[in-house]
């Protein structure tokens, strides 16, 4: 059964995403006005996760508690048919491209290093294995772009989508504590000859990919892990271990099934990647 959710702008499996401006605006997220039709790693995308399974730092839990009754974070009914079924689900805009929490606080973030993660090896890679049990999430997209070479040897972009609703992509998220110079008007802590510093939590996310289903392989050899079935989504966002989720029939269909979740595609302008 498909979930009833607001329409989402587009995002890709490869290096271009079109995030859901509609959802970001509907939930009052300040970054919505900065969302782009065609987004690259580092842009904001709407992400749903379950707080009861996420093991968040106390300061972050407190911030979410403070906003518990506000529209921007309450996503209990967004990725499920009923708000009472999953009261701990929240929506947070996150920057696409995982920046691990162990990254130096003053480092320049590299959103291109881990914008995708292979589902086949995610539990064994050091960057991701610490996240697979407690930082699972769903990224909400209208669609994504992939490229094929046409008869003239030129790259032809295709827009891939579900036709009648959003794509729900399995993801992993992390929180990076970023220390940066304060901007004018911000509260700061004293720092010698610097004008002060600010520490903030940066939410980042990576999207899981899998081998392409046979009907999609002509366009690309990889595709997102799509959680279009409620059963797969509920398992992925739940509190079970990754091993338990990976062993479920619903997730096996999502991560290795032959049918590409009702995907459809059409050629679009070659200016789409700009």
Overall pLDDT level: 79
If classified by CATH, what would the architecture be? Alpha-Beta Complex
Task: Tell me the CATH superfamily.
Answer: SOS response associated peptidase-like
Biggest sheet, spatial arrangement of strands: 2-3-8-7-5
* Fraction of residues in β-strands: 25-35%
The first-level CATH class name? Alpha Beta
- Global shape: globular
Blueprint (SSEs and pairs):
Elements: E1 17-19, H1 21-26, E2 44-50, H2 51-54, H3 58-66, E3 89-96, E4 116-118, H4 126-129, E5 136-149, E6 155-161, E7 167-181, E8 197-211, E9 222-224, H5 230-237, H6 242-246, H7 249-256, E10 264-267
Parallel strand pairs: 3-8, 4-8
Antiparallel strand pairs: 1-5, 2-3, 2-5, 5-6, 5-7, 6-10, 7-8, 8-9
Could you list some keywords that capture this structure?
single chain; five-stranded mixed beta barrel; 16% helix; globular
Structure description:
- It is a single chain.
- The protein has 274 residues and is of the alpha+beta class.
- The chain has a single domain (17-99, 107-176, 202-267), classed as SOS response associated peptidase-like (hypothetical protein yedk fold, Alpha-Beta Complex).
- It is 16% helix and 29% strand.
- The protein contains seven helices and ten strands.
- The protein has a five-stranded mixed barrel.
- The two termini are 35 Å apart.
- The model is unreliable at 1-15, 26-35 and 79-83 (pLDDT under 50).
Offer a concise description of the structure.
This protein is an alpha+beta fold. The protein has helices at residues 21-26, 51-54, 58-66, 126-129, 230-237, 242-246, 249-256; strands at residues 17-19, 44-50, 89-96, 116-118, 136-149, 155-161, 167-181, 197-211, 222-224, 264-267.
């Amino acid at each position: 059964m498909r979930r009833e959710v607001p329409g989402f702008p587009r995002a890709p499996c490869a290096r271009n995403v079109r995030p859901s401006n509609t959802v970001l605006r509907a939930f009052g997220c300040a970054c919505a006005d900065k969302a782009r039709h065609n987004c690259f790693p580092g842009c904001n995308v709407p992400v749903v996760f379950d707080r009861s399974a996420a093991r968040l730092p106390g300061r972050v839990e407190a911030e979410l508690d403070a906003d518990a009754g506000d529209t921007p974070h309450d996503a209990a009914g967004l990725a499920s048919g009923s708000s009472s079924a999953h009261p701990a689900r929240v929506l947070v805009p996150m920057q696409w491209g995982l920046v691990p929490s162990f990254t130096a606080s003053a480092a320049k973030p590299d959103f291109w290093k881990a914008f995708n993660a292979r589902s086949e090896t995610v539990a064994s890679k050091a960057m991701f294995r610490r996240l697979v049990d407690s930082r699972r999430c769903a990224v909400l997209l209208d669609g994504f772009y992939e490229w094929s070479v046409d008869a003239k040897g030129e790259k032809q972009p295709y827009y891939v989508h579900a036709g009648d609703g959003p794509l729900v992509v399995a993801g992993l998220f992390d929180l990076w504590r970023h220390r940066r110079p304060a901007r004018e008007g911000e509260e700061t802590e004293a720092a010698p000859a610097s004008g002060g510093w600010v520490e903030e939590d940066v939410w980042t996310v990576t999207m899981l990919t899998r081998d392409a289903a046979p009907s999609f392989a002509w366009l690309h050899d990889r595709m997102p892990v799509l959680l279009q079935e409620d059963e797969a989504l509920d398992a992925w966002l739940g509190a079970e271990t990754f091993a338990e989720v990976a062993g479920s029939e619903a997730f096996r269909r999502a991560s290795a099934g032959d049918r590409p979740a009702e995907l459809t595609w059409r050629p679009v302008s070659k200016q789409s990647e700009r």
